[in-house]
Amino acid sequence: MKILVLNAGSSSQKSCLYEITGETLPAEPPQPIWEAKVDWTHHEGKAEIKVKTATGEVLEEEIPSDSRPEIIAHMLDTLSQGSTQVISQPSEIDVVGHRVVHGGQDYRESVVITEDVKAAIARLATLAPAHNPANLEGIEAIEQHLGKVYQVAVFDTAFHAHLPEAAAIYPGPYEWVEQGIRRYGFHGISHQYCSQRAAQILDRDLASLRLITCHLGNGCSLAAIKNGRSVDTTMGFTPLDGLMMGSRSGAVDPSILIYLLRQSDYSVDKLDDVLNRASGLRGISGVSADMRQIKAAIAQGNSRAQLALDIYVHRLRFYIGAMLASLGGLDALVFTAGVGENAPDIRSAACEAFGFLGLKLDSEKNTHKPVDVDIATADSTVRVLVIQTQEDWAIAVESWRLKRESGE
Question: Could you tell me which of 343, 335, 340, 339 has the C-alpha nearest to residue 383?
């Protein structure tokens, strides 16, 4: 079975093609036979695209477009054309799996995409304005490019669907609960995968572990995981809550929003733009939403970039502490995603605050680009793992399962 995965983020588009042979899934995530990544963060109005196959063919180009459907169409062409060709025609693709950020209360597990599902994703875009529209654009681009191929939506909110009510319900009027205003949580595909992989690395039963998983990318969230289930998380009703992010503010005093809306030049749309696209690392530094560029600016003596990093670390420590309280103890702290996997200084700064727990980081292991390993010292009372998140493979697994269950 050939499974195409589209994983749309707020500033990137990752895609890959898996081929699964036989009647069972492999024990370890296989290498995709084709993968592509589009990045919009470096240049306004331009997209950087990199495509590679399992045999080593690579295509890198910069495309003067910020149209996601146009870029997706171009990216899909590389599947069957040029040096990166891995299939002879698009009809060879059996199923397409999509990461969809917000499923609301209606979608608590993966589903086959129908017109009703598309309408729900569009309706829920008001709760995930930086993501759901991009997810829907990907679904529609596949329809236009591949026709009536079987498509599956894998929801980022599903892993957090069973949060305890005390963690999920906001302390506003009870009418909010009846209106569906609650903590949904996000990055669930990544948090779930990383919790399962952590249990494998530690050779422990997942049901016996207390984990804090730190998904640190352009979007950032933490999850407190106990007995294999999410019991608390930092993102909330939308992906805007919680940690400081690339261009998102994370949690702020609600009265700030009321104050700003009372100013004559502030509208709801402007406030939305400021909080989602002009805050976080970008807003404080004035440089970029990209941590790599923040660090480069710090090296040049940029004080605002240094302040942005300091706030980022402070809030990361703050929320790790909150997740720790929800768990009542900790067996392992897990770092994943772009920053979590590639920034040893961020990992070190985060862990430094929890030495009182007996957590000890092995500085040599931490700095040698660890992948799916424990970087704590042998005598540390808390394990510290760096795990390469495999959201794409998790989406492929769900797509494979639903396709097989359909009998088509």
Answer: 335
